[in-house]
Every structure is written in C-alpha cells, then in structure tokens.
C-alpha cells in the first residue's frame, strides 16, 4: 500500500526550494526586533509545503483569494502588496490571473522563488518592522495573511500603520487569519493550543491579535468590514474538515511539534502518540476552528 497522498493541489511554479523580549516599551531597537519564538517558522524549505497548503485551504474555505471589492481594479491594472508573503503562493496565483496588475511580496525570510515567476511579480527580502520600503500612497491593495502569532501589541500598531501608509486613498487593506480560541475544542486539542500559545507568549506575543487588529483597523476607517467562518475539523466537517485536519496535523506535528515536545520534555514519538488522541477527539466531538477576514478602505 502506497503512502497516503495529500488532497491539496500541487503548485507547479516553485520548482526550486531554498533553505534559508517581551519588553513592550517602544524604542527604535525593540520595535525592529521581531520576537524570536522557540520554533522559528517559517524558516526553511520544509515549511514551503505547509505554506502552499495553507494558501489552498484558505482559498477553499472562502471560495476566493480576498474579500475586498478589488476585482475590477485588478482586471484593469492595480498595484498589490502582500506583506509577509512567505512562499509567495498567493501572489503567484494572482499575478497569473491578473496580468495587467503589478504584484509585490515582501518577507524577511527568503522562501519565495527568485527566478521562476511571472514578469509582473517582484519579491523583496525585507522586514516590515524596519518599515515598508515604499513611498506613501503607492498600492491599490495591501494584504496580510496572519499564519501564526508574531508581534507584540506595540509592534502590531506599527505594522498596521505601515500597511495604511503605503496604501493609496481609496485603496483596500485586508488581514486574515485563523483564531484557535474562537472555535469549539476538546481538552486534548486544547492542550496543544495552549502549548502553542506558550511558545510565543515567552516572547511577549499574545494570541489575541485578531481583536487588536480589529480595533486598530476600525479606528482608521469608516469603511470597515469583517467576516468569519467556523469550520468543523475532521470528517464531521466534510471535505473541508478533512483538509483542515490534515493541515492542522502538519502544523502541530511537522512544523512546531519539536518545540512543543521540548516544552513538555517529551520525545517526538510521545508527541505523535498524543496527537493520535487528538485525531480521535476530532472524530468523536464537534471540534471547530474559526477563520476571519478584516478589510478597510483608506
């Protein structure tokens, strides 16, 4: 019997994979230094598959790549920025679909393709905490996909201000992410989520970024919008639920499993044993996670 195949589509553009303190006082140095989590993610080529999978899962859940009303602008020619673009999957797809638009992705980790990409797509190796390397009022659409908790509250304030600064008047700024604490989880899965939170909390990073971002964005625009979808994890959620279970397993075992195991002082074999119990819990209970989108017009 062969290995189980992932149900996620393969992305053909990336043919070459490349490796590459809780102080809340705002100073030039502390703001520009991103907290270093125990698990440095994303940081290496083995995380690229997870990032690709994340993109296709999110698109499947929403049945779209974005919620902002920018379709006409993209067809006619617009400037788009993806902050923390990761492997660049989002932009690779959009740049092929909307050939008259110009797309830019930035990330401090070089996981995006250097050569094999459309001519209307550019990637820049940069850290947003040092300020976005663009002039004011430059982009028609600014996008941020929050894959994991990353910033302190003060840093989030700076990040949101930067997203708005580089957007044109009338442009849209959109943020999205998963909220593990907004769904319904059983005790076994909750233990993994709590350990995940502890990994980042040791660096002053909280799990409540969704509500802080919501507060920041709603204070910046009278044209504020948000949406959320709750998905059942596992077979109880149908096809999407099975995909979400696969994706969640990849994150908690393959991506940050070693960090959680070290935190619990257990081996990876013991962690995988505990995760099997979580999978049983998914099938026996109505476990759910929530995904959200927030978008404003400048």
Query: What strand order characterises the main sheet?
Result: 3-2-1-4-5-7-6
Give the biggest sheet.
Answer: 7 strands, mixed
Rounded to the nearest angstrom, the radius of gyration is 19 Å
- Count of domains: 1
Specify the CATH class.
Alpha Beta
SS-derived structural category: alpha/beta
Shape: globular
**Can you count the helices?**
10
| Fourth-level CATH superfamily | Vaccinia Virus protein VP39
How would you state the average pLDDT, rounded? 85
* Helix content percent band: 25-40%
Which spans have pLDDT < 50 for at least 5 consecutive residues?
1-6, 8-30, 35-39
CATH topology: Rossmann fold
Total strands: the figure is: 7
Q: What is the H-and-E element order?
A: HHHEHEEEHEHHEHHHE
CATH architectural name = 3-Layer(aba) Sandwich
Short summary:
The protein has 298 residues and is an alpha/beta fold.
Describe, in plain words, how this protein is organized in 3D:
The chain is an alpha/beta fold. Helix content is 39%, strand content 19%. The protein contains ten helices and seven strands. The chain has a seven-stranded mixed sheet with strand order 3-2-1-4-5-7-6, with helices on both faces. Helix 8 runs antiparallel to helix 10 (268-284) and helix 9 packs across helix 10. It is globular, with a radius of gyration of 19 Å. Mean pLDDT is 85; it is low at 1-6, 8-30 and 35-39.
Write the layout of secondary structure elements.
Blueprint: H1 28-32, H2 48-62, H3 71-76, E1 79-83, H4 89-97, E2 102-107, E3 121-125, E4 139-146, H5 153-166, E5 167-179, H6 187-201, H7 209-218, E6 224-232, H8 238-255, H9 257-264, H10 268-284, E7 288-297
Parallel strand pairs: 1-2, 1-4, 2-3, 4-5
Antiparallel strand pairs: 5-7, 6-7
Helix pairs in contact: 2-8, 5-7, 6-9, 8-10, 9-10
GO molecular function, one term: methyltransferase activity
Keywords: Methyltransferase, Transferase
Region (Disordered): 19-38
């Amino acid at each position: 019997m062969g290995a189980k195949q992932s149900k996620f589509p393969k992305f053909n553009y990336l043919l070459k994979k490349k490796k590459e303190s809780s102080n809340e006082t705002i100073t030039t140095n502390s703001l520009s230094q991103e907290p270093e989590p125990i698990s440095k993610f994303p940081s290496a080529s083995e995380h690229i598959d997870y990032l690709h999978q994340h993109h296709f899962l999110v698109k499947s859940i929403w049945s779209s790549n974005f919620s902002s009303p920018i379709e006409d602008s993209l067809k006619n020619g617009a400037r788009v920025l993806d902050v923390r673009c990761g492997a660049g999957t989002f932009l690779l797809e959009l740049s092929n679909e909307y050939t008259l638009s110009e797309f830019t992705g930035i990330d401090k980790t070089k996981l995006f393709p250097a050569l094999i990409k459309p001519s209307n797509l550019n990637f820049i190796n940069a850290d947003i905490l040092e300020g976005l390397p663009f002039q004011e009022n430059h982009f028609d659409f600014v996008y941020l996909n929050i894959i994991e908790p990353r910033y302190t509250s003060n840093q989030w304030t700076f990040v949101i201000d930067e997203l708005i600064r580089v957007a044109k008047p009338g442009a849209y700024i959109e943020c999205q992410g998963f909220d593990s604490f907004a769904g319904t989880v059983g005790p076994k899965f909750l233990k993994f989520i709590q350990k995940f939170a502890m990994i980042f909390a040791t660096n002053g990073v909280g799990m409540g970024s969704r509500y802080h971002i919501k507060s920041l964005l709603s204070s910046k625009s009278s044209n504020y919008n948000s949406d959320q979808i709750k998905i059942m994890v596992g077979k109880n959620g149908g096809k999407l639920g099975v995909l979400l279970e696969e994706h969640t397993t990849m994150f908690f075992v393959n991506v940050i499993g070693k960090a959680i195991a070290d935190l619990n002082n257990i081996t990876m074999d013991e962690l995988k044993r505990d995760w099997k119990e979580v999978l049983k819990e998914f099938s026996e209970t109505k476990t759910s996670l929530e995904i959200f989108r927030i978008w404003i017009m400048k």
